[in-house]
Every structure is written in C-alpha cells, then in structure tokens.
Here is the input.
Amino acid sequence: YFGAADWTEDGYIFVPDGSGALINFNGHEETKSSYDEMVYGDDLSIQSDLNSTVKEAIRMPVFGLNNGSNAIFGIITEGAASSRIKANPTNYGHGYSKVNAEFKTKLLSTIVMFGKTSNKQEVNRLSEGNGNVDTFTVDYYFLSGNDADYVGMAKTYRSYLEEKGDLSKKTTKPVLNVDTYGAIDVTANFLGFSYKKLESLTSYSEVSKIADDLQSSGINNLGVRYIGWGNNGLTNDKILSSASYLGVLGGKKDFQTLSEYLEEKSISLTLDSDLITFTDGKSKYASKTAFAETYYKYQYLRSVYVRDLNGNEQMMLIPNMISKFSSKYFDSYTKKVDCDSISLSTLTNSVYSSLRPNKTVYRTMMPGYVEEVLENANSRKLNVSGESANDFTFKYLSKIYHAPLYSSAYTIFDSEVPFYQIVLHGYITMTGEPMVQSLDSLTTFLKCVESGSELLWNGIYEDAVQLNDTNYDDLYGSTYTLWIDDATEKYTAYQPLLEKIYDKTIVAHSEISKNVSLTEYDNGVKVYVNFTNKDVVVDGVKVTAKNFAYKEG
Here is the structure.
C-alpha cells in the first residue's frame, strides 16, 4: 500500500502491460477486477492444457501511480525476472487504489496423475529455489508538477537506463520493413509413409523480385528481414549450432547473388536465427518441469483453446546451455554467411526456467545468459536486432521488431499508452506489428504514427494456398502482391513525417479529446492522430477521420 490513494482521490495507476496501460482510481466500484502479471511473461515450465487468453507481456519492470500533481514511480532493479506486478483500483472489495511488486521465490508446478481413472489426483511440487538471486529491490522515484504523469515516468526510466549504460542513441534512417519467409516443413507421403519435407515460400531469387517490385512501386527506403532462410527453415529440427544455406531456396550461389543485389540497391538485409527452440534431438538439452519432464512450447487451437496435437511441439534449450551452442553458431555464421546483420527474435523476448530437481536453472538467471550471448554477438561486429525485446537486451540492439503497440485490453484498463515507445524512441529504431496479421490494419498503422514506429509487412512470394494444412496458416494473406498497393499508399503518406522524427525523443503525449492523441518531439514536431470516424480540428489543425496530421515547431 505504499503510495496508495483512497476512494476520495482522482488519478490513475500505470502498468507496463504491452505498450502500457492506465487504470483509473474510480469507475471500477461494481467489480472486483485486479491486475496481476509476471514480469517478462508467464514461465513455460508451468504447463497448461488450455490457453484461452491472448495477452501482451510486461517488457519493462516498472509501475507507477499518479495522484493529481504528484506521482510515485517504481523500477524493479534487482530480481525483476522473478517478480509480478499487481494493481487494484478502488472497487467493490477494495477501498484503496494501489500498485506494487511481488516477488516469487519459488514456482509451483502441478500435474494430474491417473487422469483417465477414478483415482485422478493433482500433485503439486515447488521449484528448489530462486537461483543465485539473493536481493529483491524496487527503486522509487517521486514526481511532481508536469512530470507527474506516465510521460514523466517514461522519462525517468529512460534516464535510469542511460545512466546505467543500457541505452544510447543508435537510430538509423527510417525504412519500410518486410519480413520475408523462406522454407517451411510440410507433411508428405511416400508409399504410405509420412515424412517431413521442406518447401519454399520465398526463395533467395524471389526476395530480389519482391524488393524490386516494392521499389518500382515507389518505396525507396526498404529493409528486409529474412526468416527461415537457412538450416531447417522456419522451425529448427535440431539445436542451432551451425549456419547453412538451403538448397530448396537456391543454395549459396543464389544467396550471394541476393546479397549483392540488395547492397547495390541500398536495401538492408537482416537474417533471423532462432537460438532456443528445437523439435528433435537430445532431450537432455531441453528444459524440464519440476517433475523432470520435458516441457514444450505448444500451439493452441484458437477455436477451443486446447493444444493443437498436429502443431509443432517445440522444446526449449536449457538457459545455461544457450551460450555454448550460440557461440558455435556465431563461429559458423561469421565464416559462412555474407551478412553482418542478425535478428535473434526468440532470444530477446523469452525468459523461462528449467526446474529439473538438483539441476534447476531458475528464470532469474536467464537475463544474464541472454546478455552473455548478445555481448558475444556484438563482439563479433554483428549488428543485432530483436523482437518485442525485454529491457535487459536494449543495450545490445540496433532495432526492435514487433515493438508492442497494444496492451492486453483487459476490462480493468481504461486506456492504453505508448509508454514503451516513449522510453525508446530516438534511441532504438522500432517497428510496429505486421500489418497483414493485425486484427485492424488501419488502427495498427495509426498506432505506428502515434508512437513514431516504422511500418512492417509480412511477405511471401508463393500463393498462400501453399499454407493449407500446415503449421503456418497464420501467414495467410502474406503474399506480397496482395498488399503492395496498400503498403505503397501508407509509406507515401507516412515517410515524410517519419524522416523528421525518427531520431527525435518524445517529450509529450496525451489524449487531447476522446480517441484523438497528440505526440510531441524534442524538435517541436507535433503529431495528431484521429482514431475516430469523424473529422476533428485541434490546435487549428484539421485531422480527417481515421487519419493523422502534423505541424512543425
């Protein structure tokens, strides 16, 4: 209850859910709603048969409470990976609005034994301990006046990261980003036997065709991230320890031709590598539950929330083994591959445990292992990017793909704010989520404009019918010819503004009227975004429905 506000006061609680969310003190009186989430996301070692919730993770271990012209802001500085952030507004069973951190010294695992008999029983087991973490610390900051809001909290956190040496300016000229997908594994049959084979969604030469068509349409500034470009395509069968080109995509010669073509056209190329998941191989390298059973990163059916029995069941490499295998991979990559930009997407957004008795590797230890890998990559002069990145990776990254634009949209939230981007804008280049896979691509576009994020599209060359009866049906609609006109239109509208603000710091953000936002940068540029269906006029600027406008300082 440190800093708690009673029912007579007016303000809000800030929680870093996804991009960030605000919970008003009042207006929740008829409910018993509360917020309670693990920093860096749920631990995969606690397995679940059902997954009925699609939610965003906490990427920054911070929280705050605004009470008018005063605010309190907390940064979890030690033990963040083992903490939860809990918040309660004034409600039916709770007379105060409060937010705090809770530290979990152990994890509780549950399994069902004899599940198909009348003797069905639940068995619980605690993890052995909390690794090598002896101290849990929250640093509190007291804010007042113009700094007593979520923007002031973001500035405080930005300054904290700068002083710690975890954040420095390293932005690059803005581009339109395309995630291209290489090879996927599909089920085939021969003489009645099923087996897995690789099929191409976008070959090396076809990446050149996509890039050429995009530039011809008017997209002059382009960046390509190639996912599933080597080894076993989009899904690792074995732990990644060496780099190899794929014959089904064209082999080494075609890749070198692609690399030379993109360099000639001034198009950046980044190759994605998954260092932590695999579907086959020695289970002794797989993370375990507290019952010494291998656990899996499952796919779930969206219709009924249960595990997809036909999906890829991916094992997770034991955290303390990631450095060993990644070092081998970097040795191979730097010798064989003509590309110094690498995306380590799964590494930068994953925190999990391996709870095997007597060999426990607790989640509090994983940030240290991840930083060791990223430090190794940087020392080899690799330009490293990540995806939905956790705060302890910021120091090593030049770009963050899929930076969170939304919150989990829980009913307890009264509004969502671009806290994540306010902290990082002007320091690390970020993209929004892919337009094609977004539930509402226009809103996602406006969210990118509001937060100053680059645009991102998923692209494949082949017709999406090839994805039928595969584990990759989430890529439906990604065939680039389906979205090239929309991408060109949005790029043409947004790029002139982005070039003015890409390396600037956000100094103010607010909702100036219902669903109309204002973002201001340190060079005086003001960006107005209208999420409503009606034209509005703000500060003498007309902003048409579902559109944006800006004026320079």
Notes: The radius of gyration is 24 Å. The mean pLDDT is 91. Residues 218 and 550 are 22 Å apart (CA to CA). The chain has nine helices and 31 strands.
